[in-house]
Amino acid sequence: TTTQIYQNDKTYYPFSINDLNSFIGEINTLAKKHENKLFIIKYKKGEYKLLHSKIFNESSKLKNVYPVLSDIPLELIYNQFEDLINKADLLISLCFWSTTIWQMLNRKKPVIVCNNQAPSSFLNSYDNLEVKYSDIERSLDYWLNMSDEDLNNFIAKIDGMTNLSLNGTELLFNDLNNL
To answer: What global pTM score does this model have?
Structure first.
């Protein structure tokens, strides 16, 4: 998944066009090395238009890269994240605070969170969860080769720290009913 990118406007976003180009460049490199894997790149809010043409064209030529190009994500009839998440085996996210991370983990599916620019978050305390772009391939191999038992142990560990398995909406309504 990508995220909003800083342009020459007055809106602040923590990611630059260079970050986007570096991230997609790494995904292209992974796609070349893992030709038997499908890489779905879900752009949102038109970021694909900001990519360097060389990186965009390279991505477009790879048979195992499927871009979901979107200017207004809510207007997509197909390929909403909620559609894709059930088909995906793993998520690689440019945005380390994205809710897509928690949606995947809640489905007991591995995640790689890329963070080249900000101080590490608490996710960095888990092996191969929060990584620099240069470590994406190592993390991808780690998660793809992990046993189901080890993945379940990881999910249980992160659940213990984050209450991942709690239904927040249900908890909120119960608290409100008890007022």
So the answer is: 0.82
